[in-house]
Design goal:
The protein is an alpha+beta fold and 191 residues long. It is built from two helices and eight strands. The protein has two domains: 66 residues; 99 residues, Immunoglobulin-like (Sandwich), CATH 2.60.40.10. The radius of gyration is 33 Å and the shape is elongated.
């Protein structure tokens, strides 16, 4: 706003009367303070939200870790040996579902219990032996990878949580997905 436009507004306001000028000034002051209060309120709300989220995350991560550790700590520990921990699928076509079975053996003196088997992605689905594995016996973890909508190389991790001293073991699957051939539309369509 230029000096001249301010002068024009003041002249117009003076023609309305001194009471009108005071009313406008009061409204202007009210708006100024309302902006300050709203800004302060937004800042406080953001701080509360940030602290609530960080506390919730800390509580959840601690609880999950403690639950896994507590449930495993109450059981007798053993050892596990995998025949192989990495599988290479090679090249597969997009849309294919491929699977691999990881074999493992309880090499300890106590029953082996797999608490959980967690894939790193929703495209990987594990199935495993849920019953305790006696010492010297073997178990299986079947992993199915769905390549639908995932062209390119992939490297997925499967985390095995068990009553072993290491508590977790990592299995890996990898390979390359060739994309589906897109249909060519228009005058250049293949016949």
């Amino acid at each position: 706003m230029t000096y001249r436009s301010r002068m024009v507004k003041i002249v117009v306001l003076e023609q309305e009367g001194p009471g009108f000028i005071k009313l406008i000034q009061s409204l202007s002051n009210i708006l100024f303070y309302m902006k300050k209060i709203m800004g302060l309120g937004i800042a406080i709300a953001a701080l509360m939200l940030a602290s609530a989220c960080s506390e919730d995350t800390k509580e959840n991560s601690t609880d999950t870790t403690m639950l896994a550790s507590d449930s495993i700590a109450t059981k007798a520990l053993t050892t596990i040996a995998f025949a192989d921990s990495v599988h290479e699928f090679g090249t597969i076509k997009e849309g294919e579902k491929v699977s691999y079975i990881f074999k493992y053996k309880n090499t300890g003196e106590n029953p082996l219990i797999l608490e959980d088997v967690r894939p790193s992605c929703g495209c990987t689905l594990p199935e495993w032996t849920k019953d305790p594995i006696a010492p010297g016996q073997e178990g299986l973890i079947k992993v199915v990878y769905n390549s639908e909508g995932r062209p390119g190389e992939f490297h997925k991790t499967i985390t095995v949580i068990a009553n072993t001293a290491a508590e977790v073991a990592l299995l890996k699957i990898q390979g390359k997905v060739t994309p589906k051939n897109p249909e060519i539309e228009g005058p250049y369509k293949r016949k």
